[in-house]
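User: Fold this, then the next.

Assistant: Folding the first:
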Amino acid sequence: MAVTRVTKAGLAREVWQEMLGYFLAHRSYTAESLQQMGLTPGHMKTLFELDSDDPRSMGELAEVLACDASNATWLIDRLEERGLVERRPHPHDRRVKTVVLTPEGVATKKLLFDRMSVPPDDLVSLDRADLEQLRQALRLLPEHAGLSDSTPHDADQPPG
């Protein structure tokens, strides 16, 4: 009987599907955390894209959120109503508004990150050797899929 060898690309696809399936199976945990905080997934993504000392223009924010300007404005309006973000004039172009996190926004972002950093029980139940092997494999990914600036190795630090 001939053994069919999976191509490297096919194996990568299988690994990606396993990772995706795992995250989707646990999406209710993230949704529950967001709901408890009165936030939506869009709010979460917006908070994780903002900082308190690095103003982002509304246009730049819409681009990184992959939405149109009106959606970015709606998200910022809701976060501003809650005191989590603040609009400021652009230092070089008064027609442009920038957005930063307020101290309350920084605290909310940290709380959200802390809640999302608690691993699911089924992950904790893996033996130590498997967890170390999984960690090492994930650290091999180039720049952690582009999140190296916002996803720390130290789980005690929020992104951004």
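Now the next one, as you asked:
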Amino acid sequence: MHCPYCKYEETKVIDSREVTDANSIKRRRECLKCAKRFTTKEHVESLDIVVIKKDGSRQEFDRDKIRKSMLIACQKRPVTEEQLEQAINKIEFKIKNTNSTEVQSQEIGHEVMKALKKLDKVAFVRFASVYKEFKDLEEFNEELKQLMKT
């Protein structure tokens, strides 16, 4: 690591902290020549995951899409930002740690439903009503019955 001030090649790490996405780390460094301090952010470059949609089209995996759909489902519910972030991290970790660089969108939806079911049952039903594309009230009622059993 080169010092941004004097361009000297040797620095020492003073402090390291994991960033909230769990794939990055911030390091506080000090130049061994000029003694100035600076911060670097390192992140793991992972394989690009391709999501195969229901219609067969392909898109790059986008964590923000999961976040947006979960935020909508959890709107006005007692779910904290931290709980949501932890759930999204677990979903992303599971998706990225498979032996494939491709994932079906249904698998992602299933993981989101599992996470929401643990977080908040109302948010789960909200998400399920869109994800499962209920055609009538009877299908919706069946899902509620299944939820009540658990």
